[in-house]
Amino acid sequence: MTTAMNRLQDSVVLIAGAASGIGAAIAKRCIAEGAMVVCADYNLDPAMQLADTLGPSAAACQCDVTDSGSARSAVEFARQKFGRLDGLVHNAAAPSTSATVVDLDESAWRREIDVGLTGAFLMSKYAVPLIDASGGGSVVFIGSQFGRVATTKAVAYCAAKAGLIHLAKAMAVDHAPDKVRVNSLSPGAVATTRLLRRFRDFEAANATLGPAHLLGRIAEPEEIAAAAAFLLSSDASFITGSDMLVDGGYATR
Ligand SMILES: NC(=O)c1ccc[n+]([C@@H]2O[C@H](COP(=O)([O-])OP(=O)(O)OC[C@H]3O[C@@H](n4cnc5c(N)ncnc54)[C@H](O)[C@@H]3O)[C@@H](O)[C@H]2O)c1
Fold first, then answer.
1. Percent of the chain residues past pLDDT 70, beyond the cut
2. What is the pLDDT of residue 9?
3. Which residues cross the membrane (predicted)?
4. Rg from Cα positions in the chain
5. Other CB atoms within 10 A of residue 244 CB
6. Whose alpha carbon is nearest atom 13 of ligand 1?
């Protein structure tokens, strides 16, 4: 894959859930495109290791997106470290529990909705005013094709992702006058450790999940990061309130 241009030169991007998988790939891509990046994650150690490998334009902070004070602190950390904020990516999601609505524990339901949906609300609540004060920018929620089409035994995950897609639209309506664009990005299956909770390796994941995608394979995290960087950049200056499917055609049929 080619890495294009310096579309994010001098902009500051806060990524919630940056320590691994898609979040880490987005952080790398943003740095490659000239941004300064705050890697915020529940797990501080891997976030700090990532920021170390990314160099002086990256910094890490501990952040639990389900906690209002923690979300506020992460935004304040970005302000103190880099003086402004141009982009927010909400990427965090709790491990998904495989269960029907009948079998799912109430606590598992609450955890998935809390991290995946309420977390986006809390991060946005504190980040949008700083993006506004910085002259406008872009918010990107990492959704899923399962926010558009349902799948078996993933009721909390499907509901959280559908909510996230519509939260982006509602925020886009409210904040367009402030030049804050808000979009969601919905991947298909992506080769991250998230899949290794269900499959022994990526080859096995690809063999099972790949055929459900029109392109016949699962994605690499860098393919999702490329689309996120586009939505963060001024190349997407006329895009708000949209859900970008980056799903290899999964939801097409
Ligand atoms: N991997 C896939 O197949 C796939 C497909 C579609 C959508 N997605 C979505 O992409 C996003 C990233 O997925 P991934 O595969 O990279 O998963 P991942 O588990 O590798 O990454 C999730 C990150 O979020 C962090 N996190 C979890 N709870 C948090 C909290 N309370 N506060 C802050 N950070 C927290 C984790 O520490 C981790 O770094 C998720 O929103 C996921 O639903 C993934």
1. 98
2. 97
3. none
4. 17
5. 18
6. 22
Strand order through the sheet with 180-187: 58-62, 36-41, 12-16, 87-90, 137-142, 180-187, 243-246
- Interhelix angle for 68-82 vs 119-133, to 10°? 30
In sequence order, the β-bridge partners of residue 187 are 246
- Run of H or E including 120: helix 119-133
Given the structure tokens 């999601």, which residue do they identify? 93
Question: Could you tell me if the CB of 17 is within 6 A of ligand 1?
Answer: yes
Q: How far apart are the first and last CA of the chain?
A: 27
Give residue 5's pLDDT.
Answer: 78
User: What's the pTM value of the predicted model, to 2 decimals?
Assistant: 0.98
pLDDT of the residue at 4: 57
Compute the average pLDDT of residues 177-197: 97
What atom of ligand 1 comes closest to residue 19's alpha carbon? 39
92-132 confidence digits (pLDDT tens): 999 999 999 999 999 999 999 999 999 999 999 999 999 99
H helix and E strand count, the chain: 9, 7
Complete DSSP assignment for 80-99? HHHS---EEEE---PPPP-B
Which residue out of 42, 110, 161, 213 has the highest number of ligand 1 atoms within 8 Å of its CB and is therefore the one to mutate? 42
Domains of the chain by start residue, with CATH: 12-246 (3.40.50.720)
Whether residue 251 has pLDDT greater than 70: yes
Which residue from 100, 167, 115, 138 is spatially nearest to 227, judged by alpha carbons?
138
Secondary-structure percent of the chain, ordered helix, strand, coil, rounded to 5: 50, 15, 35
Backbone angle region of 135, left / alpha / beta, with phi > 0 → left and psi within -120 to 50 → alpha: left
